[in-house]
Specification:
Layout lengths: L8 E7 L6 H9 L4 E9 L5 H8 L2 E5 L4 H9 L6 E6 L7 H8 L7 E6 L3 H4 L9 E4 H6 L9 H12 L3 E6 L10 H13 L1 H10 L5
Parallel strand pairs: 1-2, 1-4, 2-3, 5-7
Antiparallel strand pairs: 4-6, 5-6
């Protein structure tokens, strides 16, 4: 296991019944040179997710919250590095190079968000809801992710904007997520975005380029 010092970055992966994709995601993360500990938060899993995580991750945190934000917060409490990376467990096409590009992006104090393949034109400079991102651990803690559900990424975007933290979007070519948000989830995200209106407008105005 790599040391959790210097440029290493601990990675939190939240998973709910992701046995079909988790092993490949963990293999890609494990092969990234700059990764620190791999922390899998197994949320109310009834399949082999926790077993797979136990074989491939450095730490498994079992919870039963059925809430993405709370699961992210549970993993965050185990992080021991200056920056933390979050990654979804249901990705297809994730490679070690994608993970390393996310972890090694400079400057080191910024938020870098991975846009999945095909999202560049759609999202560009808009605040993304992608689960793949690296942020300062202190900022992620300030975001208070507990009980935020699918709003967690918006909360991180808003917190970064309020802090004046530089942000960058990184295109992860070939990475896909086969899951499509339900109409109710889009409605919840739209409502949350309206609530975070001012900091999210500030996010757009900062104008970092997609790289």
């Amino acid at each position: 296991m790599p040391p959790t010092e210097g440029v290493a970055t601990d990675i939190v992966i939240c998973a709910h019944n992701e046995e079909a994709t988790l092993a490949k995601v963990l293999a890609a993360v494990a092969a990234a040179p700059s990764r620190g500990r791999i922390i899998v938060v197994a949320d109310a899993c009834t399949d082999r997710t926790e077993e797979i995580a136990g074989e491939l991750a450095d730490l498994v945190v079992p919870v039963a919250v059925r809430d993405k934000g709370s699961a992210m917060a549970a993993g965050l409490r185990q992080v021991g590095t200056e920056n933390v990376a979050f990654c979804d467990a249901d990705l297809e096409g994730l490679l070690p190079a994608h993970v390393e590009a996310l972890l090694g992006h400079r400057p080191s104090r910024c938020m870098v968000v991975g846009l999945r393949d095909g999202h560049r034109r759609i999202f560009g400079r808009l605040p993304p809801i992608s689960g793949e991102r690296r942020v300062p651990t202190s900022l992620a803690s300030e975001a208070r992710l507990e009980a935020t559900g699918w709003q967690a990424e918006l909360r991180l975007n808003a917190t970064a904007a309020r802090a004046g933290l530089p942000w960058y979007h990184l295109v992860l070519v070939g990475v896909r997520n086969p899951r499509r948000p339900k109409a109710s989830e889009w409605a919840q995200l739209a409502q949350a975005a309206a609530g975070y209106g001012s900091p999210l407008l500030r996010y757009v105005a900062q104008g970092r380029k997609v790289t």
